[in-house]
Design the sequence.
């Protein structure tokens, strides 16, 4: 894990937790927003104030995914998603379709206050709450999964949050976070994508390619490697 | 010329790949014992893979769609129209195609400065005219009182908000 990133006109040095030092002419910082916000990596010198403000303004979504494995079908034929506005779990979808599975695997997503409320409960109780929502929506009080699990990214030390969110006041924050700093630090990740593509894999992917282009435009591509002549005898200077 | 890429999620990997193609020296540093970051497929929970993080390719309009095609990955399309049930205020379930009569891409007025999405919807009395994709945006992020209207509109007007989603059947990783 990179603990400290020193940067300056001379290049960048990344110091890892196990004491190793990696040196480069520049760095592409492709760390999650949660890790940057928490100050897990110390920048020496610190990032410019505009970047730090943008990091604070851009929100981080609390998101929770719940998985239910049923041995029987659950959704009506032809249905793959269920949307329950205002419910404790609003978004449900099948993660099993297209596999020819006899049973069903449903995934539910909760964000914001709803996610935090569920995360405050013991896991079994959170899963039970979600199941009740599903039973009620479908009018099937008998529905019982053979397996259930929940996952979130808030406490994962290498992520510290699910994905970025454009809070009020942060419409330009992602664009600010994408800007390179003094030709040494370049930035990639879903939180540096344009608002229309942020918080997604395609946004992250495109941001990485953008950062690579920024490096190449600044430094220019390496000249092609020339083969050193094998011998320095007359053959090496033979006319073409 | 050497570039350090810090983080081997898809952003870092995409950057490293392009730099390598341009014959640059690259070192990728990753804290975990796996690559992929928030793309993380689990194959132990059920007989089919589940996605602990990212799950969908959001429309055919985004660069990861041709990438999946290029690698021959099997995908399943979720139209979010006939295949999606939405609960109406009376408790009944209707498909999005039936329950939302309006088009997804609305010709909506611009946001004013840094107003919230809730404020914007209130000001223009658009609460009942929300396309499904905006409902989904709200559910995916937070209460509209806390979301930037400007950013939400930038998403809504993007071609990626005009279609449903694709799921990679054999796992995102």
Sequence:
């Amino acid at each position: 894990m990179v603990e400290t990133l020193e940067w300056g006109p001379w290049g960048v040095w990344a110091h890892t937790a196990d004491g190793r030092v990696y040196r480069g002419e520049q760095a592409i910082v492709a760390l999650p927003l949660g890790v940057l916000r928490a100050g897990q990596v110390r920048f020496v010198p610190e990032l410019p104030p505009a970047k730090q403000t943008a990091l604070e303004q851009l929100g981080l979504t609390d998101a929770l995914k719940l998985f239910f494995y049923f041995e029987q079908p659950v959704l009506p034929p032809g249905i793959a998603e269920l949307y329950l506005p205002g419910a404790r779990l609003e978004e449900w979808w099948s993660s099993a379709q297209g596999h020819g599975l006899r049973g069903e695997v449903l995934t539910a997503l909760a964000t914001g206050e709803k996610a935090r409320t569920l995360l405050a409960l013991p896991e079994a109780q959170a899963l039970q709450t979600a199941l009740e929502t599903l039973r009620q929506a479908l009018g099937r009080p008998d529905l019982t999964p053979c397996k259930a699990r929940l996952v979130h990214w808030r406490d994962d030390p290498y992520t510290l949050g699910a994905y970025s969110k454009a809070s009020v006041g942060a419409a330009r924050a992602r664009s600010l976070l994408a800007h390179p700093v003094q030709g040494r630090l370049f930035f990639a990740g879903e939180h540096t994508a344009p608002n229309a593509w942020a918080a997604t894999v395609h946004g992250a992917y495109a941001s990485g390619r953008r950062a690579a282009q920024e490096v190449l435009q600044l430094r220019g591509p390496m000249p092609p490697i020339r083969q050193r002549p094998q011998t320095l005898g007359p053959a090496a200077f033979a006319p073409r | 010329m050497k570039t350090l890429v810090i983080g081997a999620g898809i952003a870092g990997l995409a950057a490293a790949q392009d730099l390598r193609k341009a014959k640059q020296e690259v070192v990728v540093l990753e804290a975990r014992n796996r690559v992929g970051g928030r793309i993380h497929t689990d194959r132990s929970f059920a007989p089919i893979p589940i996605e602990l993080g990212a799950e969908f390719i959001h429309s055919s309009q985004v660069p990861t769609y041709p990438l999946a095609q290029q690698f021959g990955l099997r995908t399943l399309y979720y139209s979010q129209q006939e295949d999606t049930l939405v609960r109406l205020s009376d408790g009944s379930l209707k498909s999005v195609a039936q329950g939302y009569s309006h088009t997804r891409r609305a010709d909506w007025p611009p946001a004013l400065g840094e107003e919230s999405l809730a404020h914007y919807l209130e000001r223009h009395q658009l609460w009942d005219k929300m396309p499904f994709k905006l409902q989904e945006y709200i559910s995916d992020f937070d209460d509209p009182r806390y979301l930037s209207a400007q950013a939400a509109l930038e998403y809504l007007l993007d071609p990626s908000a005009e279609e449903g989603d694709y799921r990679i059947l054999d796992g995102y990783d």
The two ends of chain A are 53 Å apart (CA to CA). Chain A has two domains: 2-60+158-219, 63-152. Chain A has six helices and 13 strands.
